[in-house]
Design brief:
Layout (H helix, E strand, L loop, with lengths): L20 H8 L3 H6 L7 E7 L5 E7 L1 H15 L7 E3 L6 H6 L6 E7 L2 H4 L2 H11 L4 H11 E2 L2 E2 L6 H8 L1 H13 L3 E5 L2 E6 L4 H13 L4 E8 L3 E3 L2 E4 L2 E3 L2 H16 L3 H23 L1
Parallel strand pairs: 3-7
Antiparallel strand pairs: 1-2, 4-8, 4-9, 5-6, 7-8, 10-11, 11-12
Helix pairs in contact: 6-7, 6-8, 9-10, 11-12
Length: 289
């Protein structure tokens, strides 16, 4: 993605009203024959399992090199569109710490995750975005949807999926944002993490948000609610108006320091530096707030 300074309205995107497949190929830096070849063929992906924290596994759809380059190009083009204030990832210059800080001071923090967000984002939804929102003709929107998807859904390992999952449901998130604002609540979206906060977050608001999400074909899980107590938002603890490093991160930092002292190899030094950097980012956000 490019910097915020180079962002522009959706209607100024080079993809907006893209007139033909030939011009699309030129924009993406591929030939017409390559554009056709890259349009949704299963052999353009490899698939492998990745173990999750809960012990289960998920399948990653990993695009092959040329397709991945084209998907990165599309991701960069969509990333130049000025992002709404509620979207924190993937947006250049906004982080998981900014996402948590957005809810600092809220008495009530309610969060939920979108279940299997990428696999639940259908090719039909992706086509709708390119055709109805970016106003591309049907043949161009079809090609773009096929490039973005593995079969009938967004590819789980594609660099394009994080930003396109938002835009494929942009009507859903705009309605959720409208509902939150009507109740004087703050909303943030960090890929599949949805957080609402405020002095009062009524149950009717959460019910309306769930209804909008469910009507779109998406599903939610891992719902959490905190009232006048510490809570965690995208890996950062909110406590008494401050951002705090979770205890598990402190433990990781202590272990990394010991490992670094025992064996100061590039890997251990890098792990330790990364954990220190995360803690510093949170501390800096407190000073800024």
């Amino acid at each position: 993605m490019l910097t915020k300074a180079r962002s522009y309205p959706l209607t100024r995107s080079p993809l907006y009203q893209m007139p033909s497949k030939r011009k699309l190929a030129a924009l993406l830096g591929v030939s017409m024959s390559d554009l056709r070849r890259l349009s949704g063929h299963e052999h353009l992906y490899t698939h492998f399992p990745v173990r999750k924290k809960d012990g289960t596994s998920r399948i990653v759809d990993n695009p092959r090199d040329q397709l991945k380059r084209v998907q990165r190009r599309l991701s960069a083009l969509l990333g130049r569109i000025a992002a709404p204030d509620v979207l924190f990832c993937p947006v250049k210059g906004r982080s998981y710490v900014d996402n948590a800080a957005h809810h600092r001071g809220g008495r009530v923090v309610h969060s939920l995750d979108i279940k299997k967000y990428f696999p639940s984002t259908t090719r039909r939804r992706v086509f709708w975005f390119f055709n109805s929102v970016l106003c591309c003709p049907r043949d161009v929107a079809t090609i773009l949807a096929r490039i973005a998807c593995c079969g009938e859904n967004l590819a789980t390992g594609s660099p394009l999926s994080p930003i396109l999952a938002y835009y494929a449901h942009v009507d859903v998130w705009e309605e959720v944002a409208r509902l939150a604002a009507a109740h004087d609540c703050k909303l943030s979206i960090y890929i599949d993490d949805v957080t609402i906060s405020g002095c009062h977050v009524p149950g009717t608001l959460i019910w309306e948000i769930k209804r909008v999400i469910y009507a779109s074909g998406l599903r939610y899980h891992k719902e959490k609610r905190a009232v006048d107590r510490p809570c965690e938002v995208t890996g950062v603890v909110l406590r008494a108006g401050r951002l705090c490093v979770p205890n598990r991160q402190h433990r990781k930092l202590r272990l990394a320091r010991r490992q670094k002292d025992r064996d100061p190899c590039p890997k251990s030094l890098g792990t330790f530096a990364g954990l220190v950097g995360q803690a510093y980012q949170i501390a800096t956000a407190n000073r800024g707030g």
